């Protein structure tokens, strides 16, 4: 089955909201063995939506529409599709009762336009909304055998409806009882172009499983997907492919999953090694510490730190000699290493990381914008690195934080491995 996704809403076209639903739906449909070939965004306009539907019907087996199922005058999706497929709109019994109960329980008056949310196609199926009032619709045109799926626009409603109501419905189409199993591998320290180059033969020869690279901010992910009738054999194929990938680029790998992050991997590594960390920040102005602090349970391994944006604060809080600091400069290996050592000493942490550099817009101490010195004081000495990150001020700071997280993670892993 081939599908396309139509996002309905003028707010998408004028940039007020991001069409995140298309990303979610594409991933979910792929896992059900349904290929998505087209994404379309169209405004709240009957004629333009009808034109889009006409084109979609000619090229797709499944047309998924999201948005425009609410009670306001610009919510036109349901009515437009109903006219397009010549379907009468009737009340969904369960959705209607839920609507009545909601307003009765909330003791709020219900305006008549709210009833629009309980309407479905006479020959279609209503899909209940766990997080809202607008009922979704599934309908198959028996003449053209085109399938239509109408979902609400708010992601919180759409995702819950898809998981609870749509997936069981889509599984009817899978006559061979096949399933798609995906595994996401996350990498830091290697760009997408180099990763693809290292794996070029695997990508070119892929059949089943498949490999899909995605460039993220400061990192790259690979999604491995296998089509299988049996979960165990599918995972075996994924294991074999992953082993071949790790043999080439495993040194850059840090974790699995769509939502797992480098900071989570770093906190997990610190916890597993049962060691603590402190930080001293200059150009990142607390961003590293805030990033760590956003992870639940980070307090078990993160002792705290210092934000020393000016030379005076470096001298005061980190007890650096002001004359020496003026001599070596703040954007230097000597400075950042001393910052890390002092942070480790003052906090009594096992590790301490320090950042200093030039975020811009102007150069500093004859160092170009993007120059960042990082140092990590460890139980076995101090390591440091100078990096030059491109892009703007905030991008430089974020890139420095990511590099620092990986610096900590790799050092702790290496030390912990040697200690075993």
UniProtKB/TrEMBL annotation:
SMART domains: MoCF_biosynth (SM00852)
CDD domains the record matches: cinA
Annotated transmembrane regions: none
InterPro entries on file: CinA, CinA-like_C, CinA_C, CinA_KH, Competence-induced_CinA, MoaB/Mog-like_dom_sf, MoaB/Mog_dom
Pfam family, one: CinA
Domain MoaB/Mog: 4-172
Similarity section: Belongs to the CinA family.
Entry-linked HAMAP family: CinA_B (MF_00226_B)
Name of the protein described by the UniProt record: Putative competence-damage inducible protein
Organism: Enterococcus columbae DSM 7374 = ATCC 51263
Underlying gene: cinA
């Amino acid at each position: 089955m081939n599908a396309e996704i139509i996002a309905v809403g003028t707010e998408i076209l004028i940039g007020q909201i991001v069409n995140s639903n298309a990303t979610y739906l594409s991933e979910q449909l792929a896992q059900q063995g349904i290929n998505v070939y087209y994404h379309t965004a169209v405004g709240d306009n009957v004629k333009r939506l009808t034109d889009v539907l006409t084109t979609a019907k000619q090229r797709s087996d499944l047309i998924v529409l999201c948005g425009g199922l609410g009670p306001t005058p610009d919510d036109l999706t349901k009515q437009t599709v109903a006219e397009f497929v010549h379907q009468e709109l009737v009340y969904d019994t369960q959705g209607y009762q839920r609507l009545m109960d909601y307003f009765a329980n909330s003791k709020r008056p219900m305006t008549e336009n709210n009833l629009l949310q309980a309407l479905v196609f006479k020959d279609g199926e209503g899909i209940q909304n766990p997080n809202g009032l607008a009922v979704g619709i599934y309908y198959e045109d028996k003449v053209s055998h085109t399938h239509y799926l109408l979902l609400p626009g708010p992601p919180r409603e759409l995702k819950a409806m898809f998981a609870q109501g749509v997936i069981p419905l889509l599984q009817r189409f899978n006559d061979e009882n096949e399933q798609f199993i995906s595994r996401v591998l996350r990498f830091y320290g290697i760009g997408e172009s180099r990763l693809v180059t290292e794996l070029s033969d695997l990508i070119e020869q892929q059949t089943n499983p498949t490999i899909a690279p995605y460039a993220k901010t400061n990192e790259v992910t690979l999604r491995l997907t296998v089509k299988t009738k049996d979960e165990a054999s599918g995972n075996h194929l994924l294991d074999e492919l992953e082993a071949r990938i790790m043999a080439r680029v495993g040194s850059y790998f840090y974790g699995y999953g769509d939502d797992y992050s480098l900071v989570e991997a770093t906190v997990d590594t610190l916890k597993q090694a049962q060691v603590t960390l402190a930080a001293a920040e200059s150009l990142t102005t607390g961003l590293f510490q805030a990033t760590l602090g956003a992870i639940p349970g980070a307090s078990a391994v993160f002792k705290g730190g210092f934000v020393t944006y000016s030379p005076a604060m470096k001298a005061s809080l980190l007890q650096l000699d002001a004359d020496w600091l003026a001599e070596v400069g703040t954007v230097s290996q000597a400075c950042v290493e001393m910052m890390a050592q002092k942070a480790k000493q003052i906090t009594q942490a096992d590790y301490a990381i320090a950042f200093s550099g030039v975020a811009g817009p102007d150069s500093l101490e004859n160092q170009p914008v993007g120059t960042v010195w990082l140092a990590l004081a460890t139980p076995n000495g101090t390591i440091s690195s100078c990096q030059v990150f491109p892009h703007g001020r905030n991008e430089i700071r974020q890139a420095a934080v990511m590099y620092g997280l990986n610096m900590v993670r790799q050092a702790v892993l290496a030390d912990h491995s040697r200690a075993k």
